[in-house]
């Protein structure tokens, strides 16, 4: 076997340096993403005990989870593309890239759905099963969103930046879910309490809207 030529050694050293840099970046970002996700998940589970100090984690933790997972997928795909570029891709790399593309696509879908719910003020369950809830159906039988207060206010309420009590008659889900949870009620009781509270608050909302329309007609 002939010894390596100087130009081969220079090329190999350059590839090793680039490979080491990419691996370090990949590992650091991966560990950071998982640590953020686990910390937010644990705090979300402990919110019943430290509720006044982490109300932002009630829903926002899933946003950060999907965001970090999506970023991790993008970084991993970039690293796979780099392996293809330098010609070090084998069957395992192709298979891993395919599976990683599927997982990143799922993460991207979850992140997009979270963004849509975040900006519209609705939940995934309400958007998927809106026909089951009378307060989401207008007089023509179509989907109606009574919780939309504009892009910026919806985002502020999602991250608990603005006071949740400012939502006039739309404070029912937070009030009843937390009260039932603190009383250690079952899931079925929580669902019934939320549905009952929503119906009551929607009646108040419709009456208030009717009074406003009547005042406009009289004026």
Keywords for this entry:
single chain, 219 residues, mainly alpha, 7 helices
Quaternary assembly: single chain
In percent terms, what proportion of residues is strand?
under 5%
Shape: elongated
Query: Please, what is the average pLDDT?
Result: 68
Q: What's the helix count?
A: 7
Portion of residues in helices?
Answer: 55-70%
State the low-pLDDT regions, or none.
Answer: 164-187
Give the termini separation. 98 Å
How many discrete structural domains?
2
Largest sheet composition: none
Q: Got a strand count?
A: 0
Transmembrane segments: 25-49, 61-85, 91-118
Keywords: Membrane, Transmembrane, Transmembrane helix
Mind explaining what this structure looks like?
With 219 residues, the chain is an all-alpha fold. It folds into two domains: 6-120, no CATH class; 132-146 and 165-218. Helix content is 69%, strand content 0%. It has seven helices and no strands. The chain has helices at residues 6-45, 60-85, 91-120, 124-128, 151-158, 172-182, 187-218. Helix 1 (6-45) packs antiparallel against helix 2, helix 2 runs antiparallel to helix 3 and helix 6 runs antiparallel to helix 7. The longest helix is centred in the first third of the chain and has 40 residues, at 6-45. The termini are far apart. Keywords: Membrane, Transmembrane, Transmembrane helix. The chain crosses the membrane at residues 25-49, 61-85, 91-118.
